[in-house]
Each structure stands twice: as structure tokens, then as C-alpha cells.
């Protein structure tokens, strides 16, 4: 906890710096007073109140502090302060320095935090806090690519050219994550978007891989064409805290009101943490002779390991006041070609008790969505979206009921949101999201459906 307090103190100091006059008037044409000598201080604060007809208690590590969508532990009605309903609260620095001949050096560093609890975003901590706790008594939780790191968002440097594109290296948002959020009507909102709250869609099957350490990323645009390529040096431990290599390719076209992208992605040794340790697993950590003896209870989690491959097709039509969106992703999970040993570390320094054989047969996970944005007035926007996630049966003997999480099943979500902007930096939003789970995807769930309205305010600088 002291580390978290120091981190939040640093955030507060940076926010104070943003309001001082030393940042104003140093750049020609600068009207916001947040850029000096080519370096920009930026941030977002998003906080509100959320109600869940079937939810779980407030957590100081979970993405929104509460579970806005139905998860396995969702049970009782809950009303609470919440964070990051429409966008992740962040603070960071970015810059661009001309190098000559049209080239520029670029960098960006930021971190995400939870304004309702004034703690750093740490999804894995939200799960570890429930180690040994019965499901019905667990606080809100969720796996995340943000695990309490000092820079749990972006941290990269690179070069760019208007003619040759942009090449960057470091911790970065993947091409798939960029495309999913671009073509999601709700831009990966954590309170209202299925693909925002459940990051598997944007993470090639696992939410921890929406942002990747140790990546080389190239993007390019020319006329109606755009695209990019990404490679992660995941097996070079000095470059990345993520296990396994990854690669992605994006090819896109924009012509008039139409825009389309196709993304191919692959990740080796992807880790998914879907829940906490059982009471028996916690006890084994202190039992001499146990294979997990000596691992710390507050930093150890069960993890499913797999090699994942996905392909996605995403599109948008801009009709002026209305924009229409649609997308489809197909993800294939298989057991890892390089199984991980017990005690392997993942992002944030957490230890994993791995399951390397969770898929007797390949699991096929499909996600599709349609939606729209409509400008009701120049300052008031309406958002609507429907999401469906579907999994095949990957048990040795096919099944289509809730008897096992390996059975086929699906998950539906519907969201309606209004967002009123008051100038460039401040807006107020409110909306409702309904979610329901069926068959194998709901195996072990305490409830089957939830109704979750949220209201909030957002300030950006």
C-alpha cells in the first residue's frame, strides 16, 4: 500500500503542475497552457455513480471499482461510487521533437488510476484480494493489462515521418486494441461496452494482452490505405514482463464515408486470470512439500495459459450526424506450445499457478457487435450498441448446457447512453447496460442477468 500511496501522491503533484502558470504561454498558438517546449501534460478524470441489480462490492483495484457487467461473483444489488465509466482516468506526458528532413522523435508515458478510490489501476490486485474468499462474498474484480505498474498505460519512444510512417518501441496499445476501440460505438467504455469491460476481444483472447511490453510497432497511412505491423519480444525478459512472443498485422481502407479494417493477431503463452485462489490453494502456499509452497498469498493467482490466434473484420459508415458500426472477431485457443512452470511471473510482478491443459479441444470464441452514434444536438450525443459473445464446446464430449465452463454458450449485452458536452474539456454522461449469460459461458455464475445504470462526469486536459 505505501507504493500505491506514493504513486497517487505523484499523480496529485502532476495535476497541480498542470494548473500552474509555468506551463502557459511558452508555446506559440498554445491555448490550453499544458504544453511547454514540445512536451504536453495530459490527463482524464472520470468518476460517477453506478447501480447493479446483480453486482458485487466496491474494490479499490478493479477497472471501474465495481462490476458493471455480469461476472461469476455478481450476486446482490449494489450502488456505489465508480471510476472510468466512459474512459480510463489517466495522467501522462507526451512529446514530439523535430529531428530534421521531416522526421520527428516521439514519446508517450502515462498511467491509469481510479479516482473513486485514489489508487492505481490494478486488476490483478482486485482478484488477489479475493484469494480464499467464497464466491458470494467476493468484492468486484477483473483481469487487466494494468496491474499497478508505474506506467500501466503507454510507455514508448520512437520516430515518425509524414512520408514513411511511425515506428515506436516499448509498452504500447496493440493494433487489435486500437481497431476494436475505433470501431466500437462506445470506444471501449468500461461501464457500457462489452468489448471494453471484457478485454479478451481486444487482447487476442486475453485481456492482459490489450497492451504489450517490449513491442516494436509500425503504422502507415497513404491515400485511402492505412495499416500496421507489431511484434512483441516476449521471450526477452529484459524487454518485457509478458510471457511469449506476439505478432499482429492490420490492413485498412477509408473511402468517402466508409472505413474498414482487418486484423490478424497471434499470442504465445497468453495468460488469463479468471478468478481467485480457492481456500485449499491458499492453504497449500504455506504447506511444506506443496508444489506452490512459499509463493505469497497476496501476489499469487491461478492462470490459464494458451496460444491464441484471432482474425477480425471491422467497419464504419459515417452518415454525418449518425455513424454506424459493425464488427466480428474469431479467436482460437489451444494449449500452449511452451507450458509455463508453477511460479512464473506475469505483469505487475504477480506469480501464476498455471493451467497448461485447459483445452482438450481448441476453443473457438466469437464476438460480434453493431451500433451507432447520433448527434442529437451539436453538444449532445446518443450511443446505442448490441454485443454478442459466443463460445464453442471444447470439452472432450461436446455439451451445450451450464454443467461445465467447457460447454458451448453465449453472452448478450445491450447499452444505451447519452453524453452531454460542456465545452472542450468537460462532459456529463448517463446510460444503462443490460447483460445476460447463457449455458456454458454462465457455468458457476451466481446469477444469469443484470441491469446496470451509471451516471458520471469526465474532465480532460
Automatic annotation (TrEMBL):
Keywords: Cell outer membrane, Ion transport, Membrane, Porin, Signal, Transmembrane, Transmembrane beta strand, Transport
Entry keyword annotation includes Endoplasmic reticulum: no
Methyltransferase among keywords: no
SUPFAM superfamilies: Porins
Highest taxon in the source lineage: Bacteria
Subcellular location: Cell outer membrane
Residues in the signal sequence: 1-24
InterPro entries listed in its UniProt record: Gram-neg_bact_OMP, Gram_neg_porin_domain, Porin_dom_sf
Membrane topology: Multi-pass membrane protein
The protein's assembly and partners: Homotrimer.
Protein name: Porin
Organism name: Dyella acidisoli
High-level lineage: Bacteria, Pseudomonadati, Pseudomonadota, Gammaproteobacteria, Lysobacterales
Amino acid at each position: 500500500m505505501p507504493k500505491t500511496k506514493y504513486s497517487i501522491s505523484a499523480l496529485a503533484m502532476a495535476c497541480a503542475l498542470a494548473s500552474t502558470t509555468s506551463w502557459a504561454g511558452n508555446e506559440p498558438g498554445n491555448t490550453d497552457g499544458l504544453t511547454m517546449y514540445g512536451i504536453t501534460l495530459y490527463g482524464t478524470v472520470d468518476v460517477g455513480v453506478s447501480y447493479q441489480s446483480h453486482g458485487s462490492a466496491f474494490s479499490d483495484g478493479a477497472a471501474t471499482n465495481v462490476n458493471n457487467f455480469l461476472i461469476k461473483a455478481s450476486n446482490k444489488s449494489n450502488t456505489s461510487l465508480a471510476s472510468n465509466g466512459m474512459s480510463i482516468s489517466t495522467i501522462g506526458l507526451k512529446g514530439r521533437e523535430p529531428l530534421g528532413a521531416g522526421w520527428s522523435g516521439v514519446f508517450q508515458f502515462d498511467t491509469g488510476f481510479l479516482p473513486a478510490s485514489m489508487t492505481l489501476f490494478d486488476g490483478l490486485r482486485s482478484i488477489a484480494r479475493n484469494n480464499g474468499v467464497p464466491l458470494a462474498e467476493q468484492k468486484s474484480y477483473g483481469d487487466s493489462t494494468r496491474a499497478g505498474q508505474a506506467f500501466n498505460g503507454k510507455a514508448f519512444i520512437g520516430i515518425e515521418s509524414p512520408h514513411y510512417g511511425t515506428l515506436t518501441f516499448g509498452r504500447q496499445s496493440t493494433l487489435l486494441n486500437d481497431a476494436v476501440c475505433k470501431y466500437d460505438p462506445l470506444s471501449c467504455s468500461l461501464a457500457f461496452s462489452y468489448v471494453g469491460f471484457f478485454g479478451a476481444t481486444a487482447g487476442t483472447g486475453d485481456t492482459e494482452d490489450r497492451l504489450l511490453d517490449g513491442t516494436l510497432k509500425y503504422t502507415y497511412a497513404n491515400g485511402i490505405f492505412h495499416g500496421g505491423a507489431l511484434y512483441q519480444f516476449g521471450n526477452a525478459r529484459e524487454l518485457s514482463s509478458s510471457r511469449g512472443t506476439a505478432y499482429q498485422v492490420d490492413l485498412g481502407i477509408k473511402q468517402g464515408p466508409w472505413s474498414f479494417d482487418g486484423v490478424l493477431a497471434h499470442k504465445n503463452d497468453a495468460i488469463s486470470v479468471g478468478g481467485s485462489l480457492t481456500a485449499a490453494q491458499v492453504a497449500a502456499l504455506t504447506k511444506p512439500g506443496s508444489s506452490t509452497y512459499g509463493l505469497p498469498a497476496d501476489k499469487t493467482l491461478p492462470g490459464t495459459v494458451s496460444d491464441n490466434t484471432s482474425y477480425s473484420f471491422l467497419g464504419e459508415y459515417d452518415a454525418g450526424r449518425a455513424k454506424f458500426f459493425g464488427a466480428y472477431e474469431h479467436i482460437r485457443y489451444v494449449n500452449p506450445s511452451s507450458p509455463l512452470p508453477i511460479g512464473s511471473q506475469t505483469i505487475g510482478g504477480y506469480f501464476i499457478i498455471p493451467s497448461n491443459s485447459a483445452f482438450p479441444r481448441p476453443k473457438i470464441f466469437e464476438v460480434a457487435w453493431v451500433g451507432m452514434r447520433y448527434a442529437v444536438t451539436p453538444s449532445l450525443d446518443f450511443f446505442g450498441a448490441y454485443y454478442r459473445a459466443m463460445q464453442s464446446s471444447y470439452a472432450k464430449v461436446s455439451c451445450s448446457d451450464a454443467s461445465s465452463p467447457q460447454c458451448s454458450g453465449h453472452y448478450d449485452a445491450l447499452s444505451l447512453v447519452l453524453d452531454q458536452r460542456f465545452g472542450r474539456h468537460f462532459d456529463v454522461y448517463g446510460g444503462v447496460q443490460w447483460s445476460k449469460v447463457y449455458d456454458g459461458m454462465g457455468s458457476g455464475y451466481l446469477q444469469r442477468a443484470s441491469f446496470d445504470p451509471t451516471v458520471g462526469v469526465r474532465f480532460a486536459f
